[in-house]
Amino acid sequence: NAGVMQNPRHLVRRRGQEARLRCSPMKGHSHVYWYRQLPEEGLKFMVYLQKENIIDESGMPKERFSAEFPKEGPSILRIQQVVRGDSAAYFCASSPLRSDSPNTEAFFGQGTRLTVV
Amino acid sequence: GENVEQHPSTLSVQEGDSAVIKCTYSDSASNYFPWYKQELGKRPQLIIDIRSNVGEKKDQRIAVTLNKTAKHFSLHITETQPEDSAVYFCAAVTGGGNKLTFGTGTQLKVEL
Lengths: 117, 112
Known about the structure:
The structure holds two protein chains of two kinds.
Chain A (H helix, E strand, L loop, with lengths): L4 E3 L2 E4 L5 E6 L6 E7 L5 E8 L2 E4 L8 E4 L6 E5 L8 E8 L11 E2 L3 E5 L1
Chain B lengths: L3 E4 L2 E5 L4 E7 L4 E9 L6 E7 L4 E4 L2 E6 L4 E6 L8 E9 L5 E3 L3 E6 L1
Parallel strand pairs in B: 2-11
Antiparallel strand pairs in B: 1-3, 3-8, 4-5, 4-9, 6-7, 7-8, 9-10, 9-11
């Protein structure tokens, strides 16, 4: 089991460009969560997805940010027209669906460190 | 929504001493409380967790206590070692998913 895979590990974008961050959950995991960690700060929830469904996007900025988790392929966090304030580490986590124990460990990927120049 | 506060923000201890980190949460419906350790530039890793139907859990040198009435939970590390130096985050989950509300983190430094 390869764990939660995120790519790229590092991403540099100029202001105004688009950033695409990818997350492949652990095998057998159907829930994906995205978190943002600003420098020297904690992790903030952004969005929670299951396959083809956005369950909770209460932490997503209203503009420029979107996320998807298609039936096939990785989850994508997309940031359009990036600004310097978007520079942060973006972590993806996945967890399985277990009806007998609704809260289970969330496994984190290595993160994508986005730098906007 | 849930709000989690964490103290202290920095903690320096001598090797072999104990370290205690405390968190409070606001939503009485929260039912799962994991603790994560994050080394510089790396991913958060779960070190211990506790569910709301349990008051205490221990795993070797690490223990967590939960007081549901007061809505606070604590991490205890005994016999600290230099490799325990990292940032520790508490978190709370409300409901059946795994949406984590994190505390602001504690930078633990274990000095020789």
